[in-house]
């Protein structure tokens, strides 16, 4: 599956290091959960309202912590891995969606830029959440990993992320859900 047993890591790194890693992992999950809740709530709130702004700032703050803490998590590979690259993409999406709101630039396009990038930030977060849940399924459904000949971990991650991103793209570009730009 890619992840090592807790005992192996504990023996290798020591108790103090493990407390740090588990604290970071817990706080990472907590911040991501806050971002999922506030990000979902924003989708159903009137855009531009004070409530939207409060939820938006909460989303951005929780995502900054989620993304920053992602760069401190090395349990899966022991070094820089593909999920660190994904965190870089997430950081780019978040900042590319937040900065135009603060600066109100580019003029006449800032709102659409904000909309596009913040939605992609949220879609990336949802894709990561579905991937995480998918990779944990064998813990509650023993033998699931044995059904697939290729690595279950990677299959679950790729399938979940691809499905979420495809559905997200359809909602943004096909259905234009929540778009600030109205067709004439």
Q: What would you say this structure looks like, in words?
A:
The chain is built from seven helices and no strands. The radius of gyration is 18 Å and the shape is globular. With 184 residues, it is an all-alpha fold. The mean pLDDT is 83.
Q: Total number of β-strand segments?
A: 0
Shape: globular
Distance between the termini: 51 Å
Q: Helix/strand/pairing class, anyone?
A: mainly alpha
Low-pLDDT regions: none
Q: Encode the helix/strand succession as letters.
A: HHHHHHH
Rg over alpha carbons: 18 Å
What's the helical proportion of residues? over 70%
What percent of residues are in strands? under 5%
Nearest-integer average pLDDT? 83
Q: What's the main sheet like? A: none
Number of helices: 7
Outline:
With 184 residues, the protein is mainly α. It has helices at 6-13, 15-43, 50-70, 82-103, 110-140, 144-147, 152-174.
Please render the helix and strand layout as text.
Elements: H1 6-13, H2 15-43, H3 50-70, H4 82-103, H5 110-140, H6 144-147, H7 152-174
Helix pairs in contact: 1-2, 2-3, 2-5, 3-4, 4-5, 5-7
